[in-house]
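[step 3/7] fold_predict: job queued, chain A
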Amino acid sequence: MTSRRTLELERGFYERHWKSAGEASHARERDRIELTTSLVPPSVNRILDVGCGDGRLSKAIRQNRECFLVGFDLSITALGKLSGPKVCGSAARMPFPDQSFELIVSTEMMEHLPEEIYGEVLKEISRVAKDFILITVPNGENLTENEAVCSSCGSRFHIWGHLRSYAPQTLNGLFRPFRLVQIFPFGEQVERYNPGLLWVRQKLAGGFAWDEQAACYYCHSTRRPTPRQPFLDRVCESLNTRFWAPFSKRPGWLLALYRRPA
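[step 4/7] structure written:
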């Protein structure tokens, strides 16, 4: 798939997402924003929020400090919900000079990037950031657990559009020449799915994950698929909930702060 076609799919996906997305009302989302805001280095005054979405993090940062903050996102719909300076575009080609922002913050964005532009986005963030980079990503997610199958076109897609998984060891050396200075898991505990039960559920029962805001990445269908064997699907869900998930949890996110060497 070409980079242009990838960009078109991404833009369409997020335009649809932000048309229906509400405010950050969940406690786990508010906690993530509060912690991320508290870790913005006190010395920075020029901040770029890459993949800012509707600006929920940008708003929180502005409420807590005097700074010049620019929101940057691919979605025009999302940026329409954000007041203040904002720019629409692809993070793979940002229209800013080298080292023009003391801090780049990018939360819940990296895991959504297609492979075709992933490397370019990492380079662009490193190029534009002067002193610090602050990111958050999901922690140790098994992407298969949150995979859906479209009931209309048969395509497989992640219910939240995630394309890669992160662990603490994979975040080191992500942005060159920046050095990782702080990393830790945080947030509400997320349950894991037993691998054996997940295989039975998907391969035999035809049951997959779903979310009330999920939509097929390719045909945009929002119709929830029905398992081939609903009873077996329910059995897998029940066994996992009772005997595995409560004893196999992880913090929902990883936060990483990088600094450019002096």
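[step 5/7] annotate
The beta strands are 46-50, 68-73, 86-88, 101-107, 129-138, 147-149, 156-158, 179-191, 249-259.
The two ends are 40 Å apart (CA to CA).
exit 0
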